[in-house]
Structures are given as structure tokens and as C-alpha cells.
Write a sequence for this structure.
């Protein structure tokens, strides 16, 4: 009988060990029961009623046929008109998950928010030069001026690091926004937001700063920089060329324009330390300029006689739209109402206009893990988009809807088709406790997820009320942004340009080409093509 060599013995033992590992529960495929647990068949919901048409193959084929026919028609006749007007809608923090959840908030997964009906959709990459997960300052610089920059900076190149007092005032680092390109082409420009008009996103229209927090002079001094050499964002809006020439400015932020010794119309003190009232300065600089601070005041305006409009409807950010509806005593206009007023003023320009509209409180609500309010804000943004599309023509007005960045909210569990999106998932976790359909990777909603004894039991808790903070895995005072791509939806001249996946900084280039303005005007691009 031949003897086995030590080397062969090692090989045999190794093979046996490998085989045992592959056939063990640790390495084998899931059992049928384990796999079924991943995709459970839940009890039918008493709230669920089948739609008869959805049970028929013909329904789905007819639906697909209509979409195919629509696509064929779009490609047969591309809209290559010059865009006289450009409106950019921004849902701050409006992730793809947020849009999908809003459909459910509207009543059913088969619904569409208004801008999802736009013919062309793309995806934009949102990273900052120095950070994978961006903020609203770096992204505003990208989608408004076509230049990616560092986290926390606005309207400057990546040569400027955050809080760099000297680099930020070097005009060679300043970027030009599409609002500036529009003004240089003889068009009017304006901005509307539900956040402060000096906040990161709207500031991207007109400002150049090394730190997004420098909304008033006191904050610059607090950070150890000179408020004389570094001009705060509110002053830039009133004094610097692009901000000064904006025909429409509406949003919140009154306190950032007035001295801390002054009280505003509702008895709230200002924040400035330089003794100035920038609202009066803005009024003194213009003719036919109107300032309003309430919805009532806005409704009383003769917009056909208004050349410049400044509306500051809150000392800080404007109220959440849902809160505004639940509390009529809040005399603040909706985003739709501000959008309508802005278009009425800007439409008087014979050369056309550029308008930036931001649903800024989507982001605020997500940071607080208040998903209910985030979806209310998203729906109101969709209402404003729908109104703008009805007020304008697809033949000469390009409307683009996008987001600056995402958030960590996800839709999970196995909710029934038309189950309330704010309720608890119908399936229990392995600890036999329920969990919310909407949840966050991190944030203050952790307090509704765990305590010292483990995961909380939300049975009997009303998770549908607007102030509820949805469950979060990691405890943070404020939930973070997400880093994935965001949607871009387009309707109007050169809408087809917005399909595909691209850098966020390409968005203003596409809008400028459609409008034939700025460094991406068609004649300039044609020269580059000819050289190549």
C-alpha cells in the first residue's frame, strides 16, 4: 500500500475543509425559508382595493403604447427654439427617494408630481471639490455658475478654502452666475425662496464668499475676519451689481438686513452690528421699487407697475407650507404665490428673464427628520412648477427642476400599495416591534428609535402627525445630506439636452446654451467646435 506524502495530505485536508465551509450554513445559499423571509407575503390590507383595470394585460400594454408614442413624437420634432426665458426650480435636499415618497403622499405610487411629467430626465453628480457629500453652498456654485468648488463656499473657485478671509476677496477667484449672464444679455433676473434670501442656495445667484455663514456682518467678525474687507451676503445683495439689479427678491431673512438695535414689522430684532438698515438702502437706490413683508402686502401690490420687488416675509426662514396652512394667522405667501408674482413682474421684460425658485424648507425638514413636512414642501414645489408651466409657453420658456443634494431618508419595509406613507410598516422586525416606513440613516429621530433598553415600541404612537421625527439609526442632532445623484427634469427649448448623467456644473451651461447667453452662447460654442 503506497504512502501519502505530507504535501498531498495537506492538499486533501484543505479540500475537505473548503468543502465543509461551502456546505455549511455560513457559506451556503439561503434556505427557502430564509429567502422567503426577505420577501414576505403579508396579510392583505383591509384598506387596499384593487383597481380592476390593473388586473388586465391590456391596461399595462396600452399605457406603455401611449408612452412610446409620446417619445416618438418628441424625437420627431425636437424643440430647438431659443429660450427667451429660463426658470430654474430647486428642491433643496429633494432626493429621488423624496420624490417617490411624495407620490405616495399624494395617494398612490402610480401618481406623478408635476415635473415628473416633463419629457426629459437626467441625473446630476453632486460632489464638491473637497467633499464627497456636498452642501448647498458648493452645489449652488455648480448649478448656477458652472464651476465646482469647496464645501461651504459660494461663488468662488476651489482656490478658496472655507473661511479664507483673504482668498475670498480676490476677484480673480469669483465665478459668474447664469443670473449675471442673463443681465449682461439685457434680460431681467430674480429669485424666490422659502429660506432666507441670504441662505446658501439663493446666495449662489449673486454672492461671492469664503463662508456660507457670512450672511450678516456680525458673523464675519465672529469668525475672526474683517467685516470691512469681507462684504457679507446681505450687503452683496443690496450693493453689488448682480444682486442690486435683481428685479425680484422674495423669501425670508429680514433680520439679516437690519441692525440688532432695530425691530422689524413683527417686533423681531435684527442681527447686524453696523447700524445699517439695508432694506431702506435698497429702497432708496431704486424707482418704482416696492418692499413688502406679508402675504397681505404682496396681494395689495400693483405688479404691473412694479419694476423692483423685495419681499421679506419672515425674520429668518419662512414657515413650512404645511404649518402655514394649519395656522392661517401666519401671513406669509406660499411658494406658488411668490412664483406667480415673480413671473408677472419679470414677464414685462421684452428681452426675457432668468428666475431662480427654491423650495428651501425640504432640506430643513429632512435635517430634523420630519419627513411629513419634507413631503408637504416637495408637493408645494411641484405646485409652483405646475403653475409656472401653465403661465409660460414651452415654445420660449425653458423650465428645469433639480436638487442640490440628497438626504438619507429611505422608503422601507413592505407597505401596502396605498398605505399612509407616514405610518408603520405592516411587517414587524425580528424583535417583534414595528418600524416606520420612512426612516433615516442618522439624525434626531434616533430618539424615537432607541433608548437605554433597546429599540422603542412605537405601537400606539401617532407617526402621521407633522411634528413626528422619523426613526434614525445613528444619533445626530441634525441629519446629514446624502451623496447620491439627483434628478434633473426639463421642459421647453433644448429640453432634450438634459437627458443622461453629467456633472452638476453642466446644468447652467445647458441652460445658457438654450438661452444663447454667457460663455455658453451658441456662437461661442460654435467657434470652439470649429477650432476642434
Amino acid at each position: 500500500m503506497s504512502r501519502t506524502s505530507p504535501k498531498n495530505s495537506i492538499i486533501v485536508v484543505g479540500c475537505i475543509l473548503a468543502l465543509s465551509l461551502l456546505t455549511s450554513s455560513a457559506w451556503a445559499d439561503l434556505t427557502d425559508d430564509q429567502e422567503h423571509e426577505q420577501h414576505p407575503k403579508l396579510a392583505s390590507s383591509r384598506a387596499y382595493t384593487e383597481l380592476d383595470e390593473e388586473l388586465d394585460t391590456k391596461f399595462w400594454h396600452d399605457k406603455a403604447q401611449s408612452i412610446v408614442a409620446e417619445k416618438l413624437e418628441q424625437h420627431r420634432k425636437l424643440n430647438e427654439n431659443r429660450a427667451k426665458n429660463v426658470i430654474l426650480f430647486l428642491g433643496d435636499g429633494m432626493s429621488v427617494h423624496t420624490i417617490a415618497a411624495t407620490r405616495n403622499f399624494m395617494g398612490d405610487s402610480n401618481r406623478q408630481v408635476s415635473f415628473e411629467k416633463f419629457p426629459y430626465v437626467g441625473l446630476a453628480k453632486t460632489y464638491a471639490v473637497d467633499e464627497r457629500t456636498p452642501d448647498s453652498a458648493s452645489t449652488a456654485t455648480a448649478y448656477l455658475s458652472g464651476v465646482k468648488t469647496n464645501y461651504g463656499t459660494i461663488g468662488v473657485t476651489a482656490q478658496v478654502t472655507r473661511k479664507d478671509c483673504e482668498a475670498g476677496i480676490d476677484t480673480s477667484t469669483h465665478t459668474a452666475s447664469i443670473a449675471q449672464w442673463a443681465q449682461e444679455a439685457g434680460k431681467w433676473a430674480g429669485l424666490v425662496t422659502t429660506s432666507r434670501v441670504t441662505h446658501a442656495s439663493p446666495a449662489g445667484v449673486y454672492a461671492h464668499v469664503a463662508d456660507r455663514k457670512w450672511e450678516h456682518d456680525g458673523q464675519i467678525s465672529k469668525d475672526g475676519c474683517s467685516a470691512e474687507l469681507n462684504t457679507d451676503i446681505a450687503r452683496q445683495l443690496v450693493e453689488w451689481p448682480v444682486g442690486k439689479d435683481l428685479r425680484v427678491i422674495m423669501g425670508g431673512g429680514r433680520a439679516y438686513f437690519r441692525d440688532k438695535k432695530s425691530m422689524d414689522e413683527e417686533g423681531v430684532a435684527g442681527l447686524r452690528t453696523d447700524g445699517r438698515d439695508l432694506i431702506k438702502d435698497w429702497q432708496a437706490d431704486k424707482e418704482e421699487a416696492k418692499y413688502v413683508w406679508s402675504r397681505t402686502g404682496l396681494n395689495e401690490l400693483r405688479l404691473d407697475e412694479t419694476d423692483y420687488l423685495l419681499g421679506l416675509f419672515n425674520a429668518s426662514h419662512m414657515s413650512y407650507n404645511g404649518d402655514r396652512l394649519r395656522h392661517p394667522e401666519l401671513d406669509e405667501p406660499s411658494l406658488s404665490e411668490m412664483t406667480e408674482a415673480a413671473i408677472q413682474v419679470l414677464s414685462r421684460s421684452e428681452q426675457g428673464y432668468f428666475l431662480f425658485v427654491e423650495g428651501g424648507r425640504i432640506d430643513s425638514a429632512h435635517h430634523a427628520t420630519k419627513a411629513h413636512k419634507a413631503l408637504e414642501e416637495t408637493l408645494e414645489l411641484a405646485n409652483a412648477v405646475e403653475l409656472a408651466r401653465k403661465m409660460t409657453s414651452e415654445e420660449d420658456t425653458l423650465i428645469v427642476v433639480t436638487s442640490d443634494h440628497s438626504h438619507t431618508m429611505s422608503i422601507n419595509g413592505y407597505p401596502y400599495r396605498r398605505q399612509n406613507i407616514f405610518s408603520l410598516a405592516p411587517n414587524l422586525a425580528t424583535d417583534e416591534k414595528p418600524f416606520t416606513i420612512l426612516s433615516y440613516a442618522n439624525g434626531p429621530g434616533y430618539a424615537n428609535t432607541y433608548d437605554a433598553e433597546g429599540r422603542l415600541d412605537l405601537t400606539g404612537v401617532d407617526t402621521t402627525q407633522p411634528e413626528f421625527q422619523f426613526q434614525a439609526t445613528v444619533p445626530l442632532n441634525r441629519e446629514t445630506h446624502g451623496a447620491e445623484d439627483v434628478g434633473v427634469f426639463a421642459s421647453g427649448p433644448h429640453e432634450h439636452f438634459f437627458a443622461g448623467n453629467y456633472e452638476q456644473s453642466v446644468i447652467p451651461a445647458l441652460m445658457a446654451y438654450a438661452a444663447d447667453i454667457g460663455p455658453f452662447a451658441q456662437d461661442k460654442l460654435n467657434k470652439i467646435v470649429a477650432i476642434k
User: Anything to note?
Assistant: The two ends are 79 Å apart (CA to CA). Residues 2 and 89 are 82 Å apart (CA to CA).
